[in-house]
Design brief:
The chain contains 10 helices and 13 strands. With 288 residues, it is α/β, with parallel strands linked by helices. The chain starts with a strand and ends with a helix. The structure holds NADP nicotinamide-adenine-dinucleotide phosphate. The site of NADP nicotinamide-adenine-dinucleotide phosphate (NAP) has 23 residues, from helix 1, helix 4 and strand 5.
Length: 288
């Protein structure tokens, strides 16, 4: 299967590392803005047809996005250009060439008044990032039949990058720095490699539609951080409780957000993780 991964961030680089090892199953190419990629492609002004030339993938895994939630609030035009128009350009390409599109969305499309949310719940985004991801979902649904919208949350996986929440938290705990973490924002922590493993299951069964494939457990950020500290053997008392109002951020965050994963769990082969399973998988990888 010929797969093009667009974007080399947390999810894109993890997907590339895992899937490109399966040479008997996949032929993987990846694009990024600048650097040593198969293709150089900018979602804002790139012409994908021109960039790809003769190469035609069967599946596009679109991981590139403007993911800085406060940045999207401060620069809504940039967010629109990347997250909405950028996605629309890929949708047009997929429609013309009958390519399956895998797109990643977020629980930030919901207002967080009473999570966890299922795929059938009505979105009501509180911030620009959530609104633009929702706009992109709508464009995909209106134009394509062969698509997957996979909603995820709180991605982390220290085996694959050191930019994520868990990696940064562990660095601080190792240095015995204390830190304040909010206990009023809930979400479903998701192991990045688990998303990739589940993408394979969706591809194997040629499924389409919208699915929540985050971790199974809704937890607040403070409790999540404490659990990480405990499992990795650091002092959990370094983590101090805070409220969202203690921090001034440009974008409002949904508080009681989170996702109900029941629909995805019914698919044979799909394996979603609770918080302990996820954190132990990361601990097993790393010898501290
Ligand atoms: N991380 C999460 O917790 C989370 C939660 C819910 C949904 N998602 C969604 O999951 C997907 C993957 O997220 P992620 O965590 O892997 O994001 P990420 O680490 O921020 O990676 C995003 C990538 O997109 C690239 N990018 C930004 N603007 C671009 C443009 N104009 N053209 C081409 N590439 C561009 C970035 O490049 P530079 O690094 O060079 O800027 C970066 O490599 C995104 O759609 C995100 O919205 C993520």
């Amino acid at each position: 299967m010929k797969i093009l991964i667009i974007g080399n961030g947390q999810l894109g680089s993890c997907a590339y590392k895992i899937l490109s090892e399966k040479k008997d199953k996949y032929e993987i190419k990846i694009s990024g803005i600048e650097g040593d990629f198969d293709f150089k492609y900018d979602l804002i002004n790139g012409n994908l047809e021109k960039v790809l030339g003769d190469y035609l993938p069967e599946v596009i895994i679109l991981t590139a996005a403007y993911t800085h939630v406060d940045g999207c609030e401060e620069k809504p035009n940039l967010s629109f250009a990347i997250n909405v128009k950028g996605t629309e350009n890929i949708v047009k390409f997929c429609k013309t060439h009958q390519v399956k599109l895998i797109f990643f969305s977020t629980d930030y499309i919901f207002d967080g008044n009473h999570g966890p949310y299922s795929e059938d719940d009505s979105p009501n985004p509180l911030n620009v990032y959530g609104q633009h991801k929702l706009n992109a979902e709508k464009i995909i649904k209106e134009n394509l039949k062969n698509y997957l919208i996979l909603r995820i949350a709180w991605l982390a996986d220290i085996k694959y990058d050191n930019m994520n929440f868990v990696a940064r938290l562990l660095e601080k705990l190792k240095n015995r720095e204390s830190l304040k973490i909010v206990d009023d924002q809930y979400g479903n922590p998701t192991l990045t490699r688990n998303v990739v493993e589940n993408i394979e299951v969706f591809l194997d069964q040629n499924l389409s539609g919208t699915y929540h494939i985050s971790g199974t457990e809704m937890i607040n950020r403070f409790a999540y951080a404490r659990k990480i500290a405990e499992i990795f053997g650091y002092d959990p008392n370094l983590i101090l409780k805070a409220k969202s109002n203690d921090f001034k951020t440009a974008a409002k965050r949904p508080l009681y957000g989170g996702m109900n994963t029941a629909k995805a769990k019914k698919i044979p082969g799909i394996k979603l993780l609770n918080v302990e399973e996820m954190v132990y998988k990361m601990k097993d990888d790393i010898a501290f």
